[in-house]
Write a structure and sequence with these properties.
It is built from 4 helices and 7 strands, in the order βαβββββαβαα. It has 188 residues and is an alpha/beta fold. The longest helix is centred in the middle third of the chain and has 20 residues.
Length: 188
């Protein structure tokens, strides 16, 4: 992906992990982050967008995820601060949902006017966060995320059955295959 997208002007940084996705399979997170920084020194590297490995304070960003209100992470000495996901507001009109009665949001709005009003409040709080604590980036998410917000089969993330004592957080076979694939790519 890095090789095929190297000249895309809209790619500002590379995210190694997202939340808890696969990070538990990689004991060498600092080495992976450094590899990416060396491989493409023209872009910032986000260790773990919204995840626990973000606490390692490696990479270029202190990235949290907060819902629904935007958070205000502090920048660290070697990292800028970012709320990589906030929002999750939704307005659902009967007869126009991808899955009738099956769509959700962190906060359901009755009207599009309510949506715009809440979004405006969030935007004003971001202006304050820019000054204190010095946040650089905020990403409003799930305004139109139909796969997560509508409940139809895709790749479910379910806990293991009670009799299963495996230490990984994600036990979905598809997810684990993808993590193993990512691992094999990193190993060469």
């Amino acid at each position: 992906m890095v090789d095929s997208r190297y000249n895309h002007p809209s790619i500002l940084q590379w995210n190694i992990f997202n939340e808890g996705d696969c990070v538990q399979l990689f004991p060498d997170v600092p080495e992976i982050v450094q590899w990416m920084k060396d491989y493409d020194p023209s872009r910032n590297v986000d260790t773990n967008s919204g995840g626990g490995a973000n606490d390692l304070r490696i990479g270029d960003v202190n990235d949290v995820h907060t819902y629904p209100n935007p958070g205000s992470p502090a920048p660290w000495a070697n990292q800028y601060s970012m709320d990589g996901e906030y929002g999750g507001l939704g307005v659902f009109q009967m007869g126009h949902e991808w899955v009738e009665g099956g769509c959700g949001a962190y906060v359901k709005m009755a009207t599009s006017g309510d949506f715009i009003g809440n979004w405006s409040v969030y935007a004003h709080s971001l202006l304050k966060f820019k000054e204190d604590p010095g946040m650089s980036v905020a990403i409003f998410t799930q305004a139109t995320d139909i796969e997560v917000s509508c409940f139809f089969p895709r790749t479910p993330r379910t806990p293991p059955p009670p009799h299963h004592h495996h230490h990984h957080h994600h036990h979905n076979p598809t997810t684990n295959k993808m993590c193993k694939f990512r691992r094999s790519v990193m190993d060469g």
